[in-house]
Amino acid sequence: MQTPNEHISLLTDLLPRYRSVNTLYTEIAERLTLSFDAQYCITDFYTEFHDVLAFEKAVMNTLLSTDNEKLTLIISNLRTEIHKNINVYTANKDFFDGIDTINICAKRHNPLKIEIDGQLKNTNKLWKELTQVRNSLESASWQDDKIATQRLTKEEERLEQTYKKEQEKLKILYEQQKESDNHASKYLENVFRRIYELGCSFISLLNNYFPIEKENIPVSITEISEPEQELQIEIEPDTIFRTDKYKNLLILEQKLITDKYLNSELHWISIHENGKPDIKRLVTFLVALMDNKYFLPRKDPKIKTFFESRYHISIGQNFERKRREPLLDEYKAVFYDYPF
Questions:
Q1: I need a surface site. Which of 27, 69, 158, 280 has the fewest CB within 10 A?
Q2: What is the C-alpha to C-alpha distance for residues 37 and 307, in angstroms, rounded to an integer?
Q3: Torsion angle, CA of 254/256/259/265, rounded to 10 degrees?
């Protein structure tokens, strides 16, 4: 069984790493250049923290096991750093996305190259000396010059031994160079957009579990929710979503918030002109997710329950198959600019 400290460790590890990455982002944007060391740190950050489900579980466990004052401070600081990261990226999106990270890796500072060039020069020089001695030895043998033959034979043996040692040194350097290239190959990808999408997912989850208090919330938002006791069933995302699709949903939800279908607390707030909840638009969105293979097969009841609980609204019979099918073409017009 995990301890409270283990629950909170992912979040406390993530916070200083976000700060470090944000410092790198600012420096990169100001200098308009990316070093391999910065690419190394940024990629390692994404690799270590890209698991959205692990983040959500850490948040849930922390929510249950940490005192409120400590939790509020951590979440507030983390939210601030994530927003900073998103803002720096969006302000410099074209530059960040256009960085040729493959070239950055290829042109990284590599002291081994200097060593290899020097060792190769020494090895080639010895090979030339050895070749000359062998030619002289062959000539002395043809002339039956025994004294020269004896002297050149010893010189050939000495150069052969030295040459083999230098060859071995060169081989070791080439192996080290191969290891360095293999290591650098892990950092070829430009992950700036991936980190932006990750940040959007994190913010969506934080807003879901730790809503920001807002003034003047329309009364109609609370009116569209069903009684709380009917929305208490919790369904884990990984029981209905295909691999990585839940992460995509979190990105789509940021656009739903921007387009005012959802508010920051993930309440479905889209309404008809008569003031009633626009359930059809929500079902249309779910149809889009289904058509784009977001869900595991035969999960209709769980899908309905999941989104009723998540968006604080009752979908009712509107999610029946016969009512969904006419919306297959409609979603492409309504959500035409959504990156499903």
A1: 69
A2: 43
A3: -80
Residue 234, number of CB atoms within 10 A of its CB = 10
How confident is the model over 242-292, as pLDDT tens digits? 888 998 899 899 989 988 889 988 999 888 777 788 899 999 999 999 999
Asked if 286 and 302 touch (Cβ cutoff 8 Å), the reply is no
Cα angle 18, 22, 26 (rounded to 5 degrees) comes to 175
Show the 3-state SS of the chain.
CCCHHHHHHHHHHHHHHHHHHHHHHHHHHHHCCCCHHHHHHHHHHHHHHCCHHHHHHHHHHHHHHCCHHHHHHHHHHHHHHHHHHHHHHHHCHHHHHHCCHHHHHHCCCCHHHHHHHHHHHHHHHHHHHHHHHHHHHHHHHHCCCHHHHHHHHHHHHHHHHHHHHHHHHHHHHHHHHHHHHHHHHHHCCCCHHHHHHHHHHHHHHHHHHCCCCCCCCCHHHHHCCCCHHHHCCCCCHHHCECCCHHHHHHHHHHHHHHCCCECCCCCECCECCCCCECHHHHHHHHHHHHHCCCECCCCHHHHHHHHHHHHCCCCHHHHCHHHHHHHCCHHHHHCCCCCC
Interval 54-89: pLDDT, tens? 998 888 887 776 567 777 888 889 999 999 999 999
Contact 246, 252 (CB under 8 A): no
- pLDDT value at residue 108: 65
Q: How far apart are the first and last CA of the chain?
A: 38
Only one residue has tokens 């200098």, namely 31
**In terms of Cα–Cα distance, which of 264, 305, 261, 269 is closest to 285?**
261
Place of tokens 């250049």: 33
pLDDT tens sequence across 82-135: 999 999 999 899 999 999 999 888 886 666 677 778 878 888 988 998 899 889
Burial class from Cβ neighbours inside 10 Å (0-12, 13-18, 19+) for residue 178 reads exposed
Q: What rounded mean pLDDT belongs to the chain?
A: 83
CA 56/CA 201 separation, integer angstroms: 10
